[in-house]
Amino acid sequence: MSYTKRVLIAEDSSVIQNLARKILEFQNYEITAVKNGEQVLQLLEKEDFDIILLDINMPIMDGMECARKIRSMSDDKKSKTPIVAITGNAKNYTDGDFKEAGFNDALMKPLNFDRLVEVVANLTE
C-alpha cells in the first residue's frame, strides 16, 4: 500500500498558497503550508516531507537562504528532500543560482498548474 506523499509549501501569497494546495490535494497529496522560510526550518525539525515548494521572495527568510539551510542539515534524509523554487524571478536569478542554492527545479509565476503537478509527481516518485 502506498502512503500519501507530504508536500510542504512555503509561500507568503495566500492566493498562490491556496491554489497550489487545492490542485495538489486533488492529486491526493497531503499539504502543509507556511508563510516563510523560518517556519519551514521549524517544521523540518519535527516532521518529514517528500517535497518542499519554496517561494523565493518571502519575509523573514527567503527561499534561497532556506534552501541552503535545508541542504546543510545534519539529518541526511531531510537535507536530501527535493526542493522546488516558486518564483516571479523579481531578482533575476538564473537556473545556475537555483541549482547552487540546492533547488531540484524551479516553477515560474504565474504558476502553470499542470507543470506543478508534473514536477511534484516526478520528484516524489
Automatic annotation (TrEMBL):
Keyword Transport: no
Domain Response regulatory: 6-124
Taxonomy, superkingdom: Bacteria
Keyword Lyase belongs to the record: no
4-aspartylphosphate modified-residue sites: D55
Swiss-Prot/TrEMBL keywords: Phosphoprotein, Two-component regulatory system
A Gene Ontology biological process term: phosphorelay signal transduction system
InterPro entries from the UniProt entry: CheY-like_superfamily (IPR011006), Sig_transdc_resp-reg_receiver (IPR001789)
Pfam family, one: Response_reg
Protein name: Response regulator
Protein's organism: Arundinibacter roseus
